Structures are given as structure tokens and as C-alpha cells.
Amino acid sequence: MEKIKKNKDLKVKSYIHDDEYYYKFIRKNIKKFRLKQNLTQQDLADMIEMSREYICDIENDSRNKHLTIAVLGRISEALNIDISEFFKE
């Protein structure tokens, strides 16, 4: 959703998205990068010292599992990708 703020004569464009908007991309990209490296959910879970169920919850839209930035950082390090890659559409 795009919102235009008017500040006297200056127009400032800002974008407003809720958390779920970003989680959608994060979920999709975690799975994409994991599969690209031929890793199972268990492989990734072992690499970041979490359970396979936790990885499954993160990747599954219907489970609505949220993760912390610290966990996202661990996943990005395990997959050897920049954390910003998870936010790309």
C-alpha cells in the first residue's frame, strides 16, 4: 500500500506494510535458498541447532510462525547468503 504524506509544499512517499508482508518473502526465500543448496529441513535445522519442526513452521505460510532477526541471521550464515536476500520479492 502506498501512502503519500504532504508536508507543506513537499511530497514524501512512504510505503506501509505489515509484518506478514515481509514474512511472506522471508518464508519463500528461506525455502528457495535451502532447496537451491539441496538441503533438507533437517539439514538446515542441524546447521542452526534448531528442530526440523521449527524450520517447517517457518517455511509454512499456514503455520504463521514468526522468527527473530537473530534466527534469520543464523539461517543466512548457514546458507552463506546475505540476510538482505530474504527480503527480496
Low-pLDDT stretches are: none
Coarse shape: elongated
Strand segment count = 2
Beta-strand content:
5-15%
SS-derived structural category: alpha+beta
Sheet of most strands:
2 strands, antiparallel
By CATH, the superfamily comes out as lambda repressor-like DNA-binding domains
**Helical coverage, percent range:** 40-55%
Characterize the structure shown.
The protein has 89 residues and is α+β, with helices and mostly antiparallel strands. The protein has a single domain, classed as 434 Repressor (Amino-terminal Domain) (Orthogonal Bundle). It is built from 4 helices and 2 strands; from the N terminus they run ββαααα. The chain has helices at 19-36, 41-48, 52-59, 69-79; strands at 2-7, 10-15. Strands 1-2 form a two-stranded antiparallel sheet. The longest helix has 18 residues, at 19-36. The protein is elongated. The two termini are 15 Å apart. The mean pLDDT is 88.
Task: Summarize the SSE layout with pairings.
Elements lengths: L1 E6 L2 E6 L3 H18 L4 H8 L3 H8 L9 H11 L10
What is the gist of this entry?
The chain has 89 residues and is α+β, with helices and mostly antiparallel strands. Helices cover 51% and strands 13% of the residues.
